[in-house]
Amino acid sequence: MNAGILGMAGVTDFGLTGLMTLIAFGIVSVPFYRGMRLCVRAHAATRRIPRSQLQRAVASESGERAESLAVLMVRVLSKSLRESDGNPTEFVLDATKQYVMNEYDVHYSRPISMYANLLPPLGLLGTSIGMLMLLLSMHYANETLELAALALTLTKTIFALISFAVLEAIKIHLHGRLLACLDDAISLHRAGEGERRRTPLAARAAPAAG
């Protein structure tokens, strides 16, 4: 009876299998797409900035929402050092770095992980639904329904696992970019600190040489 209904509807083995594959891909693609959008934004936020632009950012008080985290680092560090009440420079530097990393974690890393962590349960859900359909196909002795069940079981699990792995791999890459752009900001700070230390020494050495 079930085979007759599918035949009357004009559903072929290939058509139903393709339909189940598209459904599986569509369900998995929603969290994957949202996660990839965040990855693109995080990639822009962790871009490395030339030292000349970082130096200009130190003098600028206004910041853009889409600015690089390296710019945010130097701006917050400069402001924190001006307002610090005798706190050691290394303490302020470490606190600023933790602040910027927390901003990255809240706006990018955690949301990407949330979308990525949705994918394995969706794959498992597809496997469970596919197994249920497979049992029904065995009960009705319907080969078309059996192929559709296998297609849903396999494709949704494969799509979910590949998407999860891609998002996690990109997140690892983005973390490396974050550390690199923060290192640029820290090196700029240390270079400026070294110049400030050399200036008084040069000023004291000039009269002695005269």
Gap from first CA to last CA? 109 Å
Determine the mean pLDDT. Answer: 77
Order of helices and strands: HHHHHH
Rg, rounded, reads 28 Å
Uncertain spans, ≥5 residues at pLDDT below 50? 1-11
Overall shape? rod-shaped
Can you tell me the number of structural domains? 1
Helix and strand content put the structural class at mainly alpha
Summarize this structure briefly.
This protein has one domain (19-202). Helices cover 87% and strands 0% of the residues.
Description of the molecule:
This protein has 210 residues and is mainly α. It has one domain (19-202). It contains six helices and no strands. The protein has helices spanning 2-8, 13-45, 51-59, 69-83, 89-140, 143-209. Helix 2 runs parallel beside helix 6 (143-209), helix 3 (51-59) crosses helix 4 and helix 5 packs antiparallel against helix 6 (143-209). The longest helix is centred in the C-terminal third of the chain and has 67 residues, at 143-209.
Features:
single chain; 210 residues; mainly alpha; 6 helices; rod-shaped
SSE diagram, text form:
Blueprint lengths: L1 H7 L4 H33 L5 H9 L9 H15 L5 H52 L2 H67 L1
Helix pairs in contact: 2-5, 2-6, 3-4, 4-5, 4-6, 5-6
